[in-house]
Amino acid sequence: MELGNNERRMLRAMLPEPSRAWSLDELLEATGWSDQVHVAGAGAGLAEAGLVEVAEERGRIVSLGDEGAKAVADGLLEARLWDWMSEQKPTDRTMAGLSAAFERHEAGPGVGLLKALGIKVEAGALATADEGAVVAGIEQRTSFIQSLADGPLDAASLDAEMVSHFSGRKGLIAIEEHVSRSWSLTEAGSSEDESGLEEVELVGDVTPEMLQGDSWRDAKFKPFDVNAPAPVPLGGRPHPMQALIERIRSVFLEMGFSEIEGPYVQSAGWNMDALFIPQSHPARTMQDTFYLSEPEKVEVEDEYLDLWASVHEHGHDTGSRGWGGTFDRDEAQKALLRTHTTVNTIRHIADNPHEPCRVFGIGRVFRQESIDRTHLPEFHQIEGIIHEPDANLPMLISTLKTFYAKMGYPDVRVRPAYFPYTEPSVEVEVLWRGEWMELGGSGIFRPEVTEPLGTEWPVCAWGMGLERLAMLILELDDIRELYQPDLERLRRMPML
Fold first, then answer.
1. Which of 98, 179, 221, 339 shows a CA-CA span of 20 to 30 A to 358?
2. Containing domain of residue 36, as a range?
3. Residue 228: inside a domain, yes or no?
């Protein structure tokens, strides 16, 4: 193989130190190039000729996100909540007091963070048996965040547990993959004669002017290797996400379920109030939900507004005390982009309160999420219900275990959870790479949900994120890889 000028220059720069491994910056300085593309291209040519070996090292760089920068300045949310608790008498450490001291979008998630540190909520009060453990946990997290204040760090130098923890929290840290390369001479490359590596003027294209004269006779042309590898043209295939949707659809249909669909635009009433989600819930704020200006309002039948008002204010006749306060009918008719596909199953029950059914749906949902490796503002959700007189929790668990087994994950477990609209509630986990991974929530709809819809039958319900399941099956570490226009990468993903 005849070498081009860039290959000659790079080889000539490396020959004085034949045993050295050269970094990108070192080669740029030695060759006088300013563009790393020249190094990459010349290195590839030399590697193909067997004169150079290329080594790659992959790693991850961790930096502060926007919320992480705020946490450095103001303190982590759990640290501020703990400071508030420390200033209160034990009798004053109540949920009501916490809700009054913090914004709604902080209070809810903050309690979850405190629970993970060992703080319990008992009879509306916050308490812990081991304050030292809470303080130690907060200090560890604070120290981690502050360590990034001076700039990005290699993930390998950081506490892996902390990296994992903060990668699951929106906006606190950002993780970028990076690749470093080095080039070193092979034995053949080291034996090259430097005198034969002088750069010459190479002609890439024969012009009409050259052919009209004799200049082409003495010209030195760029080498053209007719045996060089070329990309193999590949036929089309379904996008991995669409293929996965079709696979999931076929599994549920095989299990005897029917598919339902619904519109993206919904009222807050059907999306939230019908599920007994209080109108003061943090998820209903503009920071979490996409409300619309056109249409601004979706009309809801008075019959349902009356029922929801009764349930939310005093529990109606369900045996519940409701949430108290005054139900806002205008709030219930605000137009929004649905935040889950559960709204489809709720509407289905309302339209068919006395007809047994087993239905599922797969559709897009929308939430105000910051884009990172595990979150997107638009994603898919898998939803399903069993609505019949004898529906029960063992039936629900058995159904989900069967579904995941058909998807290739026979090891499934459930653990107790809390959701505003189901009781009992469970989270579903599958065993993946030796660890249990949570994939979705499920449970039995509360009477506050079902009775206003006109049914007295139990309803087994579940919901799971499709993208999270896709990351599991396709072995992806970044959810954004599913939607990048990299056809070659998409082709390399497994067939589903």
1. 339
2. 5-59+178-221
3. no
> Does 54 score more than 70 pLDDT?
yes
Q: What is the pLDDT of residue 213?
A: 82
Please give the torsion angle defined by the CA atoms of residues 246, 250, 251 and 255, in that order, rounded to the nearest 10 degrees. 150
Q: CA angle at residue 35 from 29 to 36, to 5 degrees? A: 80
| Residue 44: closest CA among 180, 179, 177, 181 | 181
Answer for the pair 185, 54: CB distance below 8 angstroms, yes or no. no
Which pLDDT belongs to residue 1? 62
For residues 283-312, average pLDDT: 91
Identify the pLDDT of residue 496: 66
Q: List for the chain the helix, strand, coil content (%; round to 5).
A: 45, 25, 35
**Around 325, how many Cα atoms within 13 Å sit in the side-chain half-sphere?**
9
Closest by CA position to 94, among listed 85, 105, 103:
85
User: Looking at the structure, do residues 135 and 192 belong to the same domain, yes or no?
Assistant: no
pTM given for the model: 0.54
Same domain, yes or no: 461 and 486: yes
Name the least confident of 155-164, 354-363, 439-448, 475-484: 475-484
Answer whether residue 229 is part of any domain: no
The count of domains in the chain is 3
pLDDT tens for residues 438-461?
888 999 999 999 998 999 899 999
Number of neighbours of residue 123 by Cβ within 10 angstroms: 7
Q: What is the distance between the alpha carbons of residues 259 and 249, in angstroms, rounded to a whole number?
A: 8
Say which DSSP state 223 is in. Answer: P
Work out the burial of residue 303: count CB atoms within 10 Å of its CB; fewer than 13 is exposed, 13-18 middle, 19 or more buried.
exposed
Between CA 370 and CA 374 the distance in angstroms is 10
Q: Is residue 285 located within the same domain as residue 376?
A: yes
Q: CA–CA distance from 267 to each of 97, 176, 286, 336, 457 (Å)?
A: 32, 38, 14, 6, 25
Q: Can you tell me which residue has the tokens 């139900």?
A: 327
The CA distance from 307 to 451, in Å, is: 9
